Amino acid sequence: MVNPVIAAALGTVLLVAGGSTAFAQSYPSKPVRMVVPFLTGGNTDRITRALADSFSKTFNQQFIVDNRPGAGGAIGAEAVGKSAPDGLTLLVCAVGFVITPHLQKVNYDPFKDFAPISNVASNSSVLTVNAAVPVKNLRDFIAYAKANPGKITYGSAGNGSFSHITTELFAMRAGLKLTHVPYKGGPQATADLVGGQLNSYFGNAPDVVPHSKTGRLLLLAVSSAKRDKALPALPAISETYPGFSAVGWNVLLAPAGTPRDIVDRLAQEVQKAVRDPAMIARFEQMAVDAVGSTPQELAETLRQDYKLYGEVVKAAGLSGG
Description:
The protein is an alpha/beta fold. 45% of the residues lie in helices and 18% in strands. It has two domains: 30-123 and 248-316, D-Maltodextrin-Binding Protein, domain 2 (3-Layer(aba) Sandwich); 126-239, Periplasmic binding protein-like II (D-Maltodextrin-Binding Protein, domain 2, 3-Layer(aba) Sandwich), CATH 3.40.190. The strands form two sheets. A six-stranded mixed sheet has the order 2-1-3-10-4-11, with helices on both faces. Strands 7-6-8-5-9 form a five-stranded mixed sheet.
């Protein structure tokens, strides 16, 4: 005969488990906000909109993209970190999420305030210069920058953004002194690069390639360890500086304390979405690679990159506080 106490306890466990599963299956009961801490038009924004379209169909509920740019992505991250952990407010962010805390005081902890869900997509950046800069290739650019220390400007999508830290990594490796011009987002930096107000920028391929075809911009190299399959004729910086690699990511996070069933469900749906041929084709147009990691894999990526870019910030002597 089963002990009544044990039977009661077992019944409670099954009830909780069943209720938790039912909760995840009924999720979401309301529209979900996907906060992007950048302006519209950039890679993270485009990736989020693609994912929101997929989720809206999968969950039969509206997933709304909410752009909240500013402070290197900190404003959007802080808003989500303080939101209720009910899965109705999510964050899709880029590498700046783990860089900005090394550069300035932020009101969020990248580990304590968030629950990792999945790394959605990754991408390299393209070192690009305005056509008026008197260079023809990467080697020319390095020589020209060394001959004109501090005179070459480079744009970024903001302090602590991937474009910022990638340029600092490159400048450190090549021994260059460049002048940083931060923007509120990649589209603004690209616009000034095309207009000639800016000399150089590590931009996303879809933003800069069209302007290279008109002759306004010159593409020099990609930041990934190997050549980008979307731009096979363009050399990787690692071909000049072996070992150089800077690859960005776009990840999905929820506020800490979000039920594990919801986190796992979202991660599974990301993995399904990025394997869909239509999504793959959409990502290829953005020159990004589908990833679809597990929450555990994303947690490890965040830890590793937080440490790596913290070391870069310190070595480059970038301001913090």
